[in-house]
């Protein structure tokens, strides 16, 4: 199903060590509206959605895993050279005590990721509307993260991710229309 290309979907650059920003980015790593939750949600939903749009869920799920890799790279680069004092000042001392600098799926507040973040109703239209909402929440979070940093290199990667969330939302909207038109055809016959 996958062929892994050993490069990021988009280059990740940061211009400075910034543990505070790394902590905030954890929202997109292990938060309810983050990349892991999205990737797993779409991968799971593909088993109960009509064949006409199953490929879309697979494609977007795969891309969300690529986004997860980008976020992990950003967090890693932002904390790589951080001193313990910088980690403490950023409020990451609890995280450090539990994980050192290893990545762990939790949100910016330190709440661990949970499967409860993954929604699947089994109704294709309901699931696709859930997916649209998830993409719009991710888009909003990326915008807020962009607003919270003055690192133009980091902003570049975050803007790429924000734009991809917009594309995903549009593609899910198209899938809703495809399935609704299919339902209309069935009603005629």
UniProtKB/TrEMBL annotation:
Q: Which family does it belong to?
A: Belongs to the manganese catalase family.
Any stretches that span the bilayer, and where are they? none
Q: For Ca(2+), which residues are the binding ones?
A: 59
Instruction: Fetch the Gene3D superfamilies from UniProt.
Output: 1.20.1260.10
- How cofactor binds (record note)? Binds 2 manganese ions per subunit.
Query: Does this UniProt record's set of keywords contain Metal-binding?
Result: yes
Domain of life assignment: Bacteria
Q: Which cofactor does it need?
A: Mn(2+); Ca(2+)
GO terms (molecular function) for this protein are:
metal ion binding
Q: Which InterPro entries did the record assign? A: Ferritin-like (IPR012347), Ferritin-like_SF (IPR009078), Mn_catalase (IPR007760), Mn_catalase_dom (IPR039377)
Q: Name one Pfam family in it.
A: Mn_catalase
**Protein name as catalogued:** Spore coat protein CotJC
Which residues are involved in binding Mn(2+)?
Answer: 35, 64, 67, 135, 168
Q: Which UniProt keywords apply?
A: Calcium, Capsid protein, Manganese, Metal-binding, Virion
